[in-house]
Amino acid sequence: MSSLVSFRRARGYAPLAWSEEGGELLARIHALALEKGPGHVAVFDLDGCLFDTRPRQVQIFRELGARAGFDPLFRVTVDHFTDWSLRTTLDNAGVHPDWIEANYVAVRSWWERHFFTSTYVLYDHAMPGAAALVRAVHDAGVHCVYLTGRDETMRPGTEDSLRRSGFPYDVARTTLLVKPDFRQDDTEFKEGAIEIVAAIGNVVLYLDNEPSNVNLFRRRHPESLVVFVETDHSPKPVEPDVEIPWLRSFLLGPV
Ligand SMILES: [Mg+2]
Fold it and tell me: Which residues fall inside 5 Å of ion ligand 1, going by CB?
């Protein structure tokens, strides 16, 4: 039990939680991009990193709520997502445990059919400050790679979403890498993508909200700046290597 208690998990989304420490880390990223410039690569994860996926999930719940008369689902707001468990989310929203028990399978099945779709990614919004950061890195001459566990069928919505939120895309030195097959494990896919990314240039920066992925990149590119974005992540019993800095907000100052 004690190892579970001491396990270091992300605290959940807090995109407006600016801190001095976070500001210093962002300044370090800016300086690194300017120092390295052309010939170098920055890699950014999307879900739970550059994008907040909670609005997508709220929309999915509300559509089912309306269609099926599942009114308790309208209780769910973005603040109720603390991990990847839908049961926890519903519980956080104050939905009665008996209702959750009776309807969980239907809710889960609806969620799975809609969350991983091109249409619904458009309900996500960028993390505040994230597009400005990626633009600054790109403006410094660094090649920006969006490396995501979203699959090929989600590419059109993902591209649209990147454009709408003002991330560099459709311009030189930008690449979107998606999973060819939905069933592939995300970390396995990212491990395979390391070679593709390395062929583009020297990786100097990597941001992701999944502990396994940040550890993977740090071990393969020990000289790069790897950042763990603190939102939510899978329940895998992995924590980020201790040397990896954590970032909770992309804001350069309090708002
Ligand atoms: Mg992610």
Answer: 45, 47-49, 209
